[in-house]
From TrEMBL:
Keywords: Isomerase. Signal peptide: none annotated. PANTHER family: PHENAZINE BIOSYNTHESIS PROTEIN (PTHR13774), PHENAZINE BIOSYNTHESIS-LIKE DOMAIN-CONTAINING PROTEIN (PTHR13774:SF17). SUPFAM superfamilies: Diaminopimelate epimerase-like. Gene3D superfamilies: Diaminopimelate Epimerase, Chain A, domain 1. One of its GO terms (molecular function) is isomerase activity. It comes from Congregibacter litoralis KT71. The keyword Isomerase applies. This is Putative epimerase, PhzC/PhzF-like protein. One of its GO terms (cellular component) is cytoplasm. Belongs to the PhzF family.
Length: 309
């Protein structure tokens, strides 16, 4: 599907989600016996990370089911020498470094290289296992992470990140009509600003911040709240218009941050999160030692593949 065709699909889908009700099958966690490398000239895979489970997906897209975050992925026989052609989805290139280690690079739809792409890492690891390759680590921009699969989920182990409580910035009212009641920061000046609303607050009611956000902060905004739901502990949304991402669908790096944030707020070391974007995501986290494991399901929409670079 061409980039222009994808845009038309997304625009039309905002008014009718039926176009996205394609056949979905979950990628097998158990690898195939045969081994195969995908040549970069073959069609790339279109995978969806952090897709909802059967018990959630059955509610439908609008009622809480999660399509997950799309990733157009090519498995290469060597490191790429140039960036891929921009696309309407995240584009990732992955290749092997060692028997159990694979590397990847990812680009946003705005053609900006992503420093840490959780859903790209999850999709890359799942795809290599599906091709019969062994894999225990993934490397992206010098950061090497642990990787494993269990039951129906894939997991990446990232160094835990610290969060420090801060005052709710005075300018928040310029972007959200209902102010949050708590705030925290993670990372450096272009890291994350976490904003918490009271339990039960409908995060979907928040408007996507305008590009003018860049005049106030370089931090991506993670908005979150506790929920009373049998399937989830928290909800979240992720906004970074100043970095070319008005709103992300399902954000593994944000889940890593929230794992620490909510542990500091006396929630469990294991969390189940619903990302309340238009198409939605279902993310899981667990803190073990110095690592925060972020996990979820990876699915493939039948019939979706695209030409290579």
């Amino acid at each position: 599907m061409s980039c222009s065709a994808s845009k038309k699909l997304l625009e039309f889908s905002n008014g009718s989600s039926q176009l996205l009700c394609t056949t979905v099958r979950q990628l097998d966690v158990a690898p195939k016996k045969e081994k195969a490398l995908i040549d970069p000239q073959t069609p790339s895979l279109v995978l969806y990370a952090f897709a909802g489970g059967d018990e959630v997906r059955g509610r439908g897209l609008r009622e809480g089911g999660a399509r997950g975050n799309p990733c157009q992925l090519s498995l290469l026989t060597a490191a790429p020498t140039e960036a891929p052609i921009p696309d309407c989805d995240t584009r990732c290139l992955s290749w092997r470094l060692d028997d159990d280690v694979c590397a990847l690079r990812c680009w946003s739809p705005a053609d900006r290289e992503i420093q840490l792409c959780g859903h790209g890492m999850l999709c890359s690891g799942a795809a290599w296992l599906r091709e019969g390759q062994t894999l225990s680590q993934l490397e992206m921009n010098g950061l090497r992470t642990a990787f494993h699969a269990d039951e129906d989920k894939y997991w990446i182990g990232l160094p835990s990140i610290s969060c420090a409580a801060c005052r709710v910035p005075h300018w928040i009212g310029e972007f959200f009509s209902v102010p949050p009641w708590r705030a925290a920061e993670a990372g450096d000046d272009d890291g994350y600003l976490i904003l918490e609303w009271p339990e039960g607050f409908d995060l979907r009611s928040l408007s996507v911040p305008r590009y003018a956000l860049h005049r106030r902060t370089r931090r991506a905004l993670i908005v979150t709240a506790r929920v009373s739901d049998p399937h989830f502990d928290i909800q979240l949304r992720y906004f970074a218009p100043q970095h070319g991402v008005p709103e992300d669908t399902a954000t593994g790096s944000a889940m890593r941050v929230l794992a620490t944030y909510w542990r500091n707020r006396d929630l469990s070391d294991q969390l189940r999160a619903q990302q309340c974007s238009h198409y939605g995501g279902e993310l899981h986290s667990r803190i073990r030692g110095d690592l925060t494991w972020v996990g979820g399901r990876v699915t493939e929409h039948a019939g979706e593949s695209r030409s290579g670079q």
